[in-house]
Design a protein that fits this description.
Helix content: 55-70%
GO molecular function, one term: cadmium ion transmembrane transporter activity
CATH superfamily of the largest domain: Cation efflux protein transmembrane domain
Strand order of the largest sheet: 3-2-1-4
Protein name: Protein p34
Number of helices: 8
Strand content: 5-15%
CATH architecture of the largest domain: Up-down Bundle
Structural class: alpha+beta
Shape: elongated
Pfam families: Cation_efflux, ZT_dimer
GO cellular component, one term: plasma membrane
Membrane topology: Multi-pass membrane protein
Order of helices and strands: HHHHHHHEEHEE
């Protein structure tokens, strides 16, 4: 199993542990807000499983039916995660509504809050690992999972404060009100995950700072060529696809032009891991004088 797959598998283990802890906190107290926090952890387990499946599929090499690889499987996982987050928010809203109609009595609140904060601490630590490793391994699925867990930590902290306020003031309506706020927060988190994932499925270009770096690499490594233009990029999971037109002198031999292309490709792959480069060579009269000037 790949390193990304192992991290995704550990997310399942962490998710089950956190769900058990939060469910125990709800069982102790009967709090609707703590129940809403536990319900979100059910989604954490489902999304961790989806992420695990996605990274395993994404790791498969290209084949006859998928010549560009399977990298986009991670974006589908992140989209599924966003949908599940939204579904969880709707369940939480339903529980909040029932709590407004019949405010529950909160038992053993301080013990329940302490237990819930233990789960929040575990989530916080694992979210930091997922986001850091997701960036290092260029995995959208791990980053989305980490972002969701980080949002869950904020939710848990808010729930703890709200339950404490409900107990101290005697205002029982605070408990379901807080559950409703949790649902709104979860909805916003789901929307952010969905929007980020859809951009990847739509073949969005890499960020402008990275594009500027690619232009500089091409300019410095394409010595012997005239210019490069029509640079296009897209990212799919951990893979980056780069293509452009390279203009060379009309009397240059094919072998010499090929050596330049090899040099440029090697430089790009050295700077960008898992980079696939496609270069279309053109004669000098095809120059547009608007692209990348070769140094």
């Amino acid at each position: 199993m790949s390193e990304t797959g192992r991290i995704a598998a550990w997310s399942l283990v962490v998710g089950v542990a956190v769900l058990g802890i939060k469910t125990f906190a709800w069982w102790l107290t009967g709090s609707v807000a703590l129940l809403s926090d536990a319900l979100e952890s059910v989604v954490n387990i489902a999304t961790a499983f989806a992420a695990l499946m996605a990274v395993r599929i994404a790791a498969r090499p290209p084949d006859a039916t998928h010549p560009y690889g399977h990298h986009k499987a991670e974006f589908f996982s992140a989209v599924l995660e966003g949908v599940l987050i939204v579904v969880a928010a709707l369940f939480i809203l339903e529980e909040a509504w029932q709590g407004f109609r019949t405010p529950p009595e909160i038992n053993a609140p301080w013990t329940g809050i302490a237990v819930n904060l233990v789960a929040a601490g575990l989530n916080a630590a694992w979210a930091a690992v997922l986001i850091r490793q997701g960036r290092r391994l260029r995995s959208p699925a791990l980053r989305a999972d980490g972002a969701h867990l980080r949002a869950d930590v904020v939710t848990s902290a808010g729930v703890a404060i709200g339950v404490a306020a409900a107990v101290l003031t005697g205002w029982t309506w605070l408990d379901p009100a807080l559950a409703a706020l949790v649902a709104v927060h979860v909805l916003w988190s789901g929307w952010k995950v969905l929007s980020a994932s859809v951009s990847g499925l739509m073949d969005e270009s890499i960020p402008e700072p990275d594009l500027a770096s690619l232009r500089e690499i091409i300019s410095e490594s394409a010595e012997g060529a005239v210019e490069a233009h029509d640079l296009r990029t897209r990212h799919a999971g951990s893979a980056t696809f780069v293509e452009f037109h390279l203009v060379v002198p009309g009397d240059m031999t094919v072998e010499t032009a090929h050596r330049i292309c090899d040099r440029v490709e090697a430089s790009l792959k050295s700077a960008v891991p898992e980079c696939t480069v496609t270069i279309h060579v053109e004669p000098e009269h095809k120059a547009k004088h608007t692209g990348i000037v070769v140094l």
